[in-house]
């Protein structure tokens, strides 16, 4: 009998020790009526793609869009607890009111250190299959979402730290459960967090209702200036100069997502670029000084422009291309002096303004859940 | 005792069975697949070359004794690819595949990848036979050329916005870019780039490559198609095909005469 009591006592002690270790984790899932009591039945997210945009978006089979995944991703995107001092979130540099940029040339991280490249717009990134960041450093949105958290000049955190905050959070474990079916708080991983953020980023798509889209559908008539700009942009035979824009900023996304050297940096040789861009990723000197071509959709909202944010206005951008850009051995062959008149430039600007997307900018589904 | 009702049911069943049998027989007789006989899968393998050498992008090649050339982009659409069989003076066509994008641009010196493997596409269910050649359309057939990249799922060859030109309302049938050291100073100067973006319905070309191609039962053959880019610029005797120094760029349908001429030249760079 005494042996039985002793064994029972020891078993109870072991149980208590196991649970005491971290009562926010595995054991309380059952003790608190925990995560397993929450139904895991995610609903497919109905991604509505506007007319004129690609008919479908490539979605990885291991991270399908779900209502619950997108909602979790939206929370994580806007939550500053991702940064080491809980001072900045993804949205700090990717603000929905600025086409998910921050309108700064370079963005300061939590330590006040500025990055070397301008924050990119996140608009329509889900359609891109040619690498992310300006240099194409990662292949997927899931990989991309992992990086800023640990980057010393961005959020400067560790994923262990972030995961611990998620595990102790009053609602994230439940949201991870609903989105991904985790069974305990310990099942929360950085990979799942990145998947959720990637899901939210995939829904950030153009509305298809910009003035340009509406004009193409016959719902709006181009003004004379807009039409001239459109014809120069796409070199539609009209006797106007070819502004050579459409090669890189082609429909439907107004980017081909290729990498090119658009003549921003002067370089005598391929090794002389201050920022080697895509070349740092591929190791091919011919890729030095090349950067991913960004979308021009909603371009009025994402100033300043270029990977280095060096051009403050669209007028400066047009002037840059009109000049043919600075010399370097691998400058894009299409960059030659354009010979645009002042009127041509104004017309081109009028067309670019047509790409503003008010429906995107005002879409409540993209706004912070904490407001 | 004669059961009239049972007889009717039996009779009706017999009639229906007969009709069903006849229908199936007729249907089967009309099914062309039954007439194919043995079939195989045919792989068409495209290899970019510069003369007898595999072509790498961004690498310098000797166009002639004093002129270097390098390519930075070579891509083109092939469509309505068929095997040809001469029957009593008439050419009969057997489908291999409809449309693909051949893009050699990623084969570079630093990252040659599987350049030696080339780029392959497989046509399925091709009847075993002895054929006399291959016909390939170069470009996008007119009915498909009226569409645009937004209409296609990603991964479809026509989903490439890079290969579409809004100004023409046309795909770029071929994109060939690079530089030629025209002045022979050993450098590719910024005014020595060439850029040929060829497209629009009337520029569609077909290339015919005649050779005996035997398909045997149980064997899936690979036919290697060499795409010799030197032949776009130099004839076999070494003389220029056209004056590239005078015409370094084209991507405008107003330039149709040149585009059409260049597509014709391009159709002559293919061989088995």
Structure report:
The complex is a heterodimer of chains A (371) and B (272). Chain A is globular. Chain A is built from 14 helices and 2 strands. Chain A has 371 residues and is mostly helical. Chain A has helices at residues 2-20, 26-31, 67-78, 90-93, 141-150, 159-168, 172-180, 190-202, 211-216, 224-233, 278-282, 314-323, 342-353, 358-361, and strands spanning 259-260, 291-292. The longest helix of chain A has 19 residues, at 2-20. Chain A has a two-stranded antiparallel sheet. Chain A folds into 2 domains: 25-206 and 362-366, Cytochrome Bc1 Complex, Chain D, domain 2 (Orthogonal Bundle); 211-355, Cytochrome Bc1 Complex, Chain D, domain 2 (Orthogonal Bundle). Chain B is an alpha+beta fold and 272 residues long. Chain B has 2 domains: 1-35; 38-271, no CATH class. In chain B, strands 3, 4, 5, 7, 8, 9, 10, 11 and 13 form a 9-stranded mixed β-sheet that branches. In chain B, a hairpin with a 4-residue loop joins β8 (164-165) and β9. Chain A binds chain B through residues 52-58, 127, 129, 234-237, 242, 246-247, 250-253, 255-256, 258, 282-286, 327, 329, 331, 333-334, 336, and chain B through 58, 72, 108-111, 148-155, 159, 161-162, 164-167, 177, 179, 188, 190, 193-195, 249, 251-254.
Going across the biggest sheet of chain A, name each strand in turn: 1-2
User: So how many helices of chain B?
Assistant: 4
Q: Any guess at the CATH architecture of the largest domain in chain A? A: Orthogonal Bundle
Which structural class best describes the helix and strand composition of chain A? mainly alpha
Q: What is the CATH class name of the largest domain in chain A?
A: Mainly Alpha
Overall mean pLDDT of chain B:
87
The amount of helix of chain B comes to: 10-25%
Number of strands of chain A: 2
- The 3D shape of chain B can be described as globular
Return the string of H and E elements of chain A: HHHHHHHHHHEHEHHH
In total, the number of domains of chain B comes to 2
The domain tally of chain A reads 2
| CATH fold-level label of the largest domain in chain A | Cytochrome Bc1 Complex, Chain D, domain 2
The residue ranges of chain A in which pLDDT falls below 50 over 5 or more consecutive positions are: 11-32
Distance between the termini of chain B: 80 Å
Assembly annotation: heterodimer
Major sheet characteristics of chain A? 2 strands, antiparallel
Structural class of chain B: alpha+beta
| Radius of gyration of chain A using CA atoms only | 25 Å
- The percent range for strand residues of chain B is 35-45%
CA radius of gyration of chain B is 26 Å
């Amino acid at each position: 009998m005494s042996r039985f009591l002793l064994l029972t006592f020891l078993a109870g002690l072991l149980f208590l020790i196991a649970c005491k270790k971290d009562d926010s984790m595995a054991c309380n899932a059952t003790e608190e009526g925990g995560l397993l009591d929450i139904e895991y039945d995610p609903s497919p997210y109905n991604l509505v793609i506007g007319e004129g945009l690609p008919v479908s978006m490539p979605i990885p089979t291991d991270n399908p869009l779900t209502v619950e995944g997108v909602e979790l991703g939206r929370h994580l995107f806007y939550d500053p607890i991702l940064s080491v001092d809980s001072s900045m979130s993804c949205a700090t540099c990717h603000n929905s009111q600025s086409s998910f940029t921050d309108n700064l040339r370079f963005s300061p991280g939590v330590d006040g250190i500025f990055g070397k490249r301008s924050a990119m717009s996140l608009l329509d990134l889900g359609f891109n299959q040619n690498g992310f960041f300006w240099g194409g450093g990662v292949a997927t949105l899931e990989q991309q979402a992992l990086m800023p958290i640990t980057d010393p000049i961005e959020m400067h955190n560790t994923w262990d730290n972030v995961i611990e905050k998620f595990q102790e959070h009053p609602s994230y474990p439940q949201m991870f459960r609903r989105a991904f079916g985790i069974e305990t708080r310990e099942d929360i991983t950085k990979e799942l967090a990145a998947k959720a953020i990637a899901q939210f980023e995939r829904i950030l798509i153009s509305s298809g209702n910009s003035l340009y889209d509406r004009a193409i559908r016959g719902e709006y008539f181009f003004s004379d200036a807009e039409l001239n700009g459109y014809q120069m942009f796409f070199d539609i035979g009209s006797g106007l100069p070819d502004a050579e824009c459409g090669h890189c900023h082609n429909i439907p996304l107004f980017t081909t997502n290729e990498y090119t050297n658009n003549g921003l940096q002067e370089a005598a040789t391929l090794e002389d670029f201050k920022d080697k861009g895509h070349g740092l990723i591929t190791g091919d000197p011919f890729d030095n000084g090349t950067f991913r071509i960004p979308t021009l959709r909603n371009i009025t909202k994402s100033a300043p422009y270029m990977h280095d944010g060096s051009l403050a206005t669209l007028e400066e951008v047009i002037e840059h291309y009109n000049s043919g850009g600075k010399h370097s051995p691998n400058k894009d062959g299409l960059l030659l002096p354009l010979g645009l008149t002042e009127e041509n430039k104004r017309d081109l600007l009028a067309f670019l303004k047509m790409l503003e997307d008010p429906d995107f900018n005002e879409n409540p589904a993209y706004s912070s859940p904490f407001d | 005792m004669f059961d009239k009702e049972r007889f009717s049911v039996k009779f009706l069943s017999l009639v229906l069975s007969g009709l069903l049998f006849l229908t199936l027989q007729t249907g089967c007789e009309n099914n062309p697949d039954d007439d194919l006989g043995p079939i195989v899968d045919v792989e068409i393998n495209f290899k970019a070359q510069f003369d007898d050498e595999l072509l790498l992008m961004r690498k310098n090649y000797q166009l002639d004794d004093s002129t270097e050339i390098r390519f930075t982009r070579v891509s083109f659409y092939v469509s309505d690819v068929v095997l040809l069989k001469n029957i009593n003076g008439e050419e009969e066509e057997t489908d291999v595949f409809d449309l693909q994008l051949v893009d050699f641009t990623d084969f570079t010196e630093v990252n040659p990848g599987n350049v030696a493997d080339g780029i392959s596409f497989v046509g399925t269910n091709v009847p075993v036979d002895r054929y006399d050649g291959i016909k390939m359309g170069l470009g996008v057939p007119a009915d498909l050329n009226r569409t645009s990249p937004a209409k296609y799922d990603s991964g479809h060859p026509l989903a490439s916005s890079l290969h579409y030109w809004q100004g023409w309302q046309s795909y770029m049938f071929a994109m060939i870019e690079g530089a030629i050291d025209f002045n022979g100073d050993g450098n590719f100067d910024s005014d020595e780039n060439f850029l040929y973006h060829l497209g629009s319905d009337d520029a569609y070309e077909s290339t015919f490559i005649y050779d005996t191609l035997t398909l045997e039962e149980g064997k899936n053959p690979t036919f290697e198609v060499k795409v010799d880019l030197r032949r776009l610029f130099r004839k076999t005797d070494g003389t220029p095909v056209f004056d590239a120094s005078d015409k370094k760029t084209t991507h405008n349908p107003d330039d149709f005469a040149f585009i059409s001429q260049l597509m014709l030249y391009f159709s002559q760079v293919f061989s088995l």
